[in-house]
Design goal:
Residues 353-394 form the PAS domain. This protein is of the alpha+beta class and 729 residues long. The strands form seven sheets. It has a five-stranded mixed beta sheet, with helices on both faces. Strands 15-14-18-17-16 form a five-stranded antiparallel beta sheet, sandwiched between helices. It has a five-stranded mixed beta sheet with strand order 20-22-23-25-24, covered by helices on one side.
Length: 729
């Protein structure tokens, strides 16, 4: 077949297809921005009236044949991409209407998320942002048109959070916002006490609140409601609203690149010219689906059916007309097309791979390097040239990495040994050398790479600057050491305070008890002296009235005994006048025992102590306790030759044993000797001995076997004794 034959056949088929689709569409052509037919402001039928532009504005439009808008792909109902990939939404309809009123050619560029759109307009790669909140937080790179609408900016929480809240109520909590949104910038700059969770889109932010991963979400009400309904997030509610101090802020408008004020003025002129009917048409386009009429026209359906039938008839005629020629042309065309497509695909892949590779090398923050088998640098990313202090690649390429970049060349051998053993190294820390000789800490992840023939081509990998991290780690170690030291000091001070408090508490309790006992002792001492004087007065009166010499002598003896009793009471009062005046303290038992011995004339008695190093917490009159016990031996065990002091630990504390080898105490007197009534007519020493010891919870009992000597067991509570380093059990 000739080229002319192919051309005629192609023209024929093309004409048929064009006619068929013209019938299918009914002559209507839909635009990208809003799906509106030409000459309308949306899905309605109201003609669009162009605005009058100045010569300068017309000139600007002529010089800018294409105006690029970067929409938020996930911001319904304001702007989004529908299922067919078309730019849709309220802002899309407005932009289409503004384009018709001004003659601007507005086209969209689809990006993954809003953050990319913000970056593009900052880099002068786009002209417009389709829907953006007016705010002073974006000064420097963005201007705003007149506002188109003002949706509320609300706080979304779960339903278990009650009451109406403001952003101030979330101090110390986590609030989610989409990266690049005005709500995100507002939280970052105006509410430093709130931890901001960066979200890629609205759906993810609301889902994080619903699942409890964050405390709240900040965004506009329409889009939040859209996603809550679409996602079935029934556990969310509006918990509050952010009302800007300036009512002109936080209104949705079109964002215009800051260096294009003419474009903003053109759009503002068109916005002022929008009629209420045009605004109503755009609003009606986005009401709920159930309130709209069916989008299908039966006439269009019949036109489609007719066109399809006509198309199949024509195709059948063509097939019958020259079946052989069709097969030959189709086969050859298919082969040529496949070959051409494959070549184009391969070339495009190569170009894309080259662009990607070059982009990665130029933009990578870490350092990429490659060496030949001898260790000579054959490739180094721009970040590596900067990190190691060089001005160009020519200064370092071709040099050996061991001598050029390693502060310790021996570390290079260690890296090579690890690669030979494991095939690669991962995050291997080394010290690197810069051009000026300074040393920095880096880590490398490296491996071998093959040549096309499969042989070893060299080593390549990534080098990362970790000097800042190392500094942080060292600072962290230092801070931890300081914190540990402070903690030890705090624990020590706490223990000391606790010990002092416990000691003070025990002292206070003991003093209170001692003072009560002292008051009691004073009372009974006064009463005893008063009773004795009364008795003495009685005997004196009897003596005056008596003339019997024997009676008078008897009265003298009784008066003498009363006087002895008074002297004994006064002596006791003198001994115990200091009871309770000073707090209890730790006292050396062995020392108190020996001091008591030194006050008495007991040379005939051997005194043995086996309590060296033992201290007890007792009243300062502890020494008087031993004096009383030793006097008791002298007075009541005249044949005793030995006093023995020992101790033993028991479950309830410690027992201090004071014993002698005298006759002992009869069984019926073992408790009476400590009683007040018995002591008044004998010796009050043992009574007050028990009272002195009881001040700090110490008890005393006589447990000896009569005929084998006296044995006083003194039980000291667990917290009332201790052994020092000079002796003990």
């Amino acid at each position: 077949m000739t080229a002319a034959g192919i051309s005629q056949r192609t023209i024929l088929i093309t004409a048929v297809i064009i006619l068929s689709f013209a019938a299918l569409a009914g002559g209507a052509y839909y635009f990208l921005a809003a799906g509106a037919p030409p000459g309308t402001g949306g899905p309605g039928t109201t003609p669009v009236t162009p605005v009058t532009l100045s010569p300068d504005e017309q000139r600007w439009i002529a010089q800018h044949p294409v105006v690029v808008v970067c929409p938020d792909p996930n911001y319904p109902p304001f702007e989004f991409y529908d299922q067919t990939g078309n730019y849709s939404g309220i802002s899309a309809d407005y932009l289409h209407l503004l384009a018709q009123k001004t003659g601007l050619n507005i086209t969209d560029t689809r990006q993954d998320n809003w953050s990319v759109c913000v970056s593009m307009i900052q880099a002068n790669q786009s002209d417009l942002l389709g829907a953006v909140y007016t705010s002073d937080l974006r000064t420097g790179y963005l201007n705003y048109t007149l506002p188109l609408y003002q949706p509320p900016l609300v706080i979304i929480t779960t339903r278990n959070v009650t009451g109406m809240l403001s952003l101030d109520d979330f101090k110390g909590m986590t609030v989610a916002a989409v990266n690049g949104y005005t709500s995100y910038d507002l939280l970052k700059e105006k509410y430093p006490g709130i931890e901001v969770r960066t979200e890629p889109d609205i759906r993810t932010g609301l889902l994080d609140v619903s699942l409890g991963r964050t405390d709240a979400y900040l965004g506009d009400l329409p889009t939040a409601s859209w996603y809550i309904e679409q996602g079935g997030l029934s556990n969310l509610r509006v918990a509050g609203e952010y009302v800007p101090p300036d009512p002109t802020q936080f209104q949705l408008a079109i964002g215009v690149r800051a260096n294009e004020p003419e474009l903003r003025d053109i759009l503002n002129k068109a916005i002022l010219a929008i009629t209420p009917e045009e605004r109503t048409q755009i609003a009606n386009r986005w009401i709920p689906q159930e309130f709209q009429t069916s989008p299908f026209d039966t006439r269009i359906i019949w036109a489609i059916i007719s066109g399809v039938v006509l198309l199949f008839v024509i195709i059948g005629i063509i097939i019958l007309w020259n079946n052989t020629l069709r097969h030959a042309v189709a086969q050859k065309t298919r082969e040529l097309s496949e070959e051409l497509s494959e070549r184009r695909r391969t070339q495009e892949l190569l170009r894309e791979s080259e662009r990607t590779y070059r982009s990665i090398l130029e933009d990578i923050q870490d350092v990429f390097y490659r060496t030949d088998p001898d260790g000579n640098l054959v490739m180094l990313s721009p970040s590596g040239i900067k990190l190691f202090g060089y001005t160009s690649a020519d200064e370092i390429l071709g040099k050996n990495i061991r001598d050029t970049l390693y502060a310790d060349p021996g570390e290079r051998e260690s890296v090579l040994a690890a690669i030979r053993k494991n095939g690669s190294v991962q995050d291997y820390d080394i010290m690197a050398k810069r051009k000026d000789g300074s040393v920095i800490a880096v880590s490398t992840t490296s491996h071998t790479y093959p040549a096309p023939d499969g042989t070893l081509a060299g080593i390549e990998g990534i080098i990362r600057d970790i000097s800042q991290r190392k500094g942080f780690e060292q600072e962290l170690v230092r801070k931890n050491e300081e914190l540990s030291g402070a903690r030890e000091q705090l624990l020590s001070a706490q223990a000391e305070l606790k010990e002092n408090f416990n000691r003070l508490k025990k002292n206070q309790a003991a003093l209170d008890l001692a003072r009560k006992k002292l008051n009691f002792f004073n009372t009974i001492t006064f009463q005893n002296i008063q009773n004795a004087i009364f008795t003495l007065s009685g005997y004196l009166e009897l003596e005056k009235e008596s003339t019997d010499a024997e009676k008078i002598l008897e009265y003298h003896e009784k008066q003498h005994r009363v006087i002895q009793t008074i002297l004994r009471i006064l002596r006791f009062a003198d001994n115990y006048k200091n009871l309770g005046l000073t707090p209890p303290r730790w006292q050396d038992v062995n020392q108190s025992f020996l001091f008591a011995v030194s006050h008495l004339d007991i040379k005939r008695i051997s005194c043995v102590s086996e309590v060296r190093g033992l201290e007890v917490f007792a009243d300062p009159l502890l020494e008087e306790v031993f004096v009383t016990l030793e006097e008791n031996v002298i007075q009541h065990a005249k044949e005793a030759t030995e006093i023995h002091l020992s101790c033993r630990v028991v479950p309830d504390g410690l027992v201090l044993i004071f014993s002698d080898n005298g006759p002992g105490v009869p069984g019926d007197l073992k408790e009476k000797i400590f009683e007040k009534g018995y002591a008044e007519y004998h010796d009050m020493g043992l009574f007050f001995t028990r009272e002195i010891l009881s001040i700090t919870g110490i008890t005393i009992h006589e447990t000896g076997e009569y005929g084998k000597g006296a044995r006083f067991e003194i039980l000291i509570p667990k917290d009332g004794y201790r052994f020092t380093g000079t002796g003990g059990q």
